Amino acid sequence: MGLVGWYRSTISPKNPGKCKYYPTCSTYMVIAVKRFGAIRGSLLGTLRLLRCQPWVDGGIDDVPHRFSLFYRFRWSKAHEEATLEPIVTLEEQLK
59 forms bridges with which residues in the sheet? Predict the structure, then answer.
């Protein structure tokens, strides 16, 4: 969490906003760590950072409700369909 806070206060203000996903990767990491703990949340956040590439369209990518590294695949028990609107508002996710 300290690393994310440092990024948000030091690096992020110097760069224009260009995140392809909602919520942003740093917010995704904070929500994932709060929801699943430091290790599993950091793992989900790192996978999200790896998905952020020039060839990806982006869009809404909420933190899953059940932990699974494979929640994006249909065969996973924790699979959640992508939505066109956020499932929960950002303020509710950060609680």
Answer: 21
Angle ∠(85,24,87) on CA atoms, nearest 5: 25
Distances (CA, A) of 20 to 40, 71, 95: 23, 20, 24
Is the model more confident about 34 or about 4? 34
Placement of tokens 């990767």 in the chain: 25
Q: How far apart are CA 9 and CA 78, in angstroms?
A: 34
* pTM of the model as a whole: 0.71
Nearest to 73 by CA among 81, 85, 65: 81
C-alpha dist (Å) from residue 66 to 32, 40, 80: 11, 11, 9
